[in-house]
Amino acid sequence: MGVALAVSLSVTGSAGAGPAVRAGPGQEVGPVTRLPIPRFVSLKTDEANVRRGPSMSQRIDWVYKARGMPLEVIGEYGNWRRVRDRDGVGGWVHYSLLSGVRTVIVEEDMLPLYQRRDPQGPVNAYLEAGVIARVEKCGPVWCRLSAGGKRGWTTHAGLWGLRAGEELD
């Protein structure tokens, strides 16, 4: 029988290294990094100010408070990355607070984490909605995740932080 895992995410406010990322044919690339736009990254720290513009003098609109939280980079300017979270809100974050390590947020409550890529197989754990899991690898349908000391396989469905059918080694 599996174990249920939960974590809490918090965002307060008003209104790096990872797998190689390459742009596909015709995909936009950032003017600074030459990496694909949009692309997913994760929060490297326990807390990150999200600013209205790409400067330390800009107003702080949000504070993300979840290490490992996946974010989507949608723009670049100097040392700043424009990001958005799974709710579509965001702003500008200094690049030093971001990592190329891929993570996902579980959106489907009690998502099974299987021992192997088989929905009829044994379940290692059930992931509660809101859990942040590290992506170890992904094929077109199945992803190997780790969270709370548990590892296993689940499908892309019910996860935020991956493109449909995205493959990662």
How many helices in DSSP terms? 0
Give the strand order, joined by hyphens, for the main sheet. Answer: 8-7-6-3-9
The shape, in one word, is globular
State the helicity in percent bands. Answer: under 10%
CATH homologous superfamily caption of the largest domain: SH3 Domains
The run of helices and strands is: EEEEEEEEEEEEEEEE
Number of domains: 2
CATH architecture call of the largest domain: Roll
> Could you name the CATH class of the largest domain?
Mainly Beta
CATH topology of the largest domain: SH3 type barrels
Low-confidence stretches: 1-19
Number of strands: 16
Describe the overall structure.
- The protein has 169 residues and is mainly beta.
- It has 2 domains: 11-101, Roll (SH3 type barrels), CATH 2.30.30; 104-160, SH3 type barrels (Roll), CATH 2.30.30.40.
- The chain has no helices and 16 strands.
- It has a 5-stranded antiparallel beta sheet with strand order 8-7-6-3-9, with no helix packed on it. Strands 15-14-13-10-16 form a 5-stranded antiparallel beta sheet, with no helix packed on it.
- Strand 7 (80-84) and strand 8 (90-94) form a beta hairpin.
